[in-house]
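sry for the spam today, last one i promise. struct tokens for design, 245 residues
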């Protein structure tokens, strides 16, 4: 796969060295465009490849007791390996769904295996990505279990601003967030009604606004204070030329 097809090294894969990035590209078998709200993988389904999100947003969901109910447990942005942990497991315990129209790079597990068998440092670098993915999960558990509605929504918006800025999709406190209030409620452990009220309170407090899918954050420091947001869980210090503040 030509490196130009990968649309640049952004987001979490920026942590990879140039040499490792070029090796990784060589293992990409295909680039696919997928429509919004499409299930890519379902719980219990055998998995033979991992996907690198190049554009758009994807969610990971735990199926609920009813066919129509499920809980979002993770949100993926460009530069995220959506299901790298399926490589050793060969199966997922959750569903993977596109939230928006997306573009993904497909990495067959056999090609990944050949890479890491010849390069242990690359294996460690990919392992680090899964470790950070797990840290994001713990942060989500903290947000949904420990924070009240206003703090939870503020925390989520802080996380999205930082992760999308790392992916080159946020600038000067603004970014696109093509999610419904139902989606945001799932990410924050609250109801769409509470999301609407909290967004109003944050807007009236001059901390941030969400209009027509565009988030504007005029006071990042205060929004982080309200949301009890600490970016440490992303382990950004080793990422060259990126200031989490």
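last one done:
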């Amino acid at each position: 796969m030509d490196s130009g097809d990968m649309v640049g090294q952004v987001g979490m894969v920026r942590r990879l060295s140039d040499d490792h990035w070029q090796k990784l590209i060589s293992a990409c078998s295909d680039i696919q465009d997928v429509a919004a709200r499409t299930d890519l993988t379902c719980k219990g389904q055998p998995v033979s490849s991992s996907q690198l999100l190049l554009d758009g947003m994807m969610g990971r969901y735990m199926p609920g007791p009813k066919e129509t109910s499920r809980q979002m447990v993770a949100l993926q942005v460009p530069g995220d390996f959506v299901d790298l942990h399926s490589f050793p497991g060969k199966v997922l315990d959750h569903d993977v769904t596109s939230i928006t129209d997306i573009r993904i790079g497909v990495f067959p597990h056999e090609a990944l295996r050949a890479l890491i068998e010849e390069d242990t440092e690359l294996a460690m670098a990919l392992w680090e990505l899964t470790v950070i993915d797990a840290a994001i999960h713990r942060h989500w558990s903290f947000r949904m279990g420990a924070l009240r509605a206003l703090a939870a929504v503020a925390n989520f918006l802080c996380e999205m601003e930082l992760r999308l800025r790392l992916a080159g999709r946020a600038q000067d406190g603004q970014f696109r967030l093509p999610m419904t209030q139902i989606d945001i409620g799932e990410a924050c452990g609250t109801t769409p009604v509470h999301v609407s009220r909290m967004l109003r309170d944050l807007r009236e407090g001059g901390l941030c606004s969400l209009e027509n899918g565009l988030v504007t954050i005029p006071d990042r420091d205060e929004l982080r204070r309200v949301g009890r947001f600490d970016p440490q869980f992303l382990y950004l210090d080793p990422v060259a030329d990126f200031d989490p503040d």
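The CA atoms of residues 171 and 236 lie 18 Å apart. ok im logging off now
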